[in-house]
Amino acid sequence: MEKSTLPRHVGLIMDGNGRWAKKRLRPRSFGHSAGMNAMIEVAKRAKELGIEYLTVYALSTENLINRPKDELEELFNLLRKYFSKHVKQLYKAGARVRVIGDRTPLPEDVKKLLDDGEKNSPDGAAFTLVFAINYGSRSEILNAVNLLRGSDDKADEAAFASKLYTDGLPDPDLIIRTGGEVRLSNFLLWQAAYAELYFTPVLFPDFTPAEFDKALEEYAKRNRRYGGL
User: If one looks up domain 3-219 in CATH, what number appears?
Assistant: First the structure.
């Protein structure tokens, strides 16, 4: 794959962890752990190829409301177990971390983990791994509207985008969803206006770097016209 054919920013909806575990007669936490390992490998591959940004949909606002408390606690425990360790590896590899979403309702120690992950990121990194945690695009848009109403900024696209959680990030060129569902599920709705979409039935723990490459190869065949001819 040539650099010129690669997306600058990829969004990744990591779906299918629970179903992957169920097929193996294991608890959902087993699937989430396997998904964490898969995400790390995909991030390594993205950085290796020269992709600049990878945004992973780790926890949605709907997940936080609708998932059982014990499953949410297992997810938070995964963050507690893996986040600091792997973030330090990212730093050593010359990558930085960004977190988008509403951190307010998260456990205090998890908030600190995320805050420190961003704060301690190296400057000028060529690759950014963005974690969307307690993220929902509708709530993000409403929050941006309220911020814009309370400011003196002119209500144009640039001013609006500056109030989004993703301020400073380029819009995604490609959004990948694993697990067989064909929808965006409240992920980067404003930012994905001209993104290419790629859906695969592969459950996320089985989404290897080779499967990631398939999505990139498909993206390279697309003709992005942005409303032109």
Answer: 3.40.1180.10
Encode pLDDT of 107-140 as tens digits: 999 999 999 999 999 988 999 999 999 999 999 9
| Vertex 87: Cα angle to 85 and 89 (nearest 5) | 75
Out of 15, 17, 134, 173, which one is annotated catalytic?
15
| Model pTM score | 0.94
Tell me whether residue 116 is one of the annotated catalytic residues.
no
Question: Is 37 in the active site?
Answer: no
Return the DSSP state at 172. P
- List pLDDT tens digits, range 173-214: 999 999 999 999 999 999 999 999 999 999 999 999 999 999
- State the catalytic residue, choosing from 17, 63, 134, 173: 63
> Domain locations in the chain?
3-219
Task: Tabulate helix, strand, coil % of the chain (nearest 5).
Answer: 45, 15, 35
Q: Say if residue 135 is exposed, middle or buried (CB neighbours under 10 Å; 0-12, 13-18, 19+).
A: buried
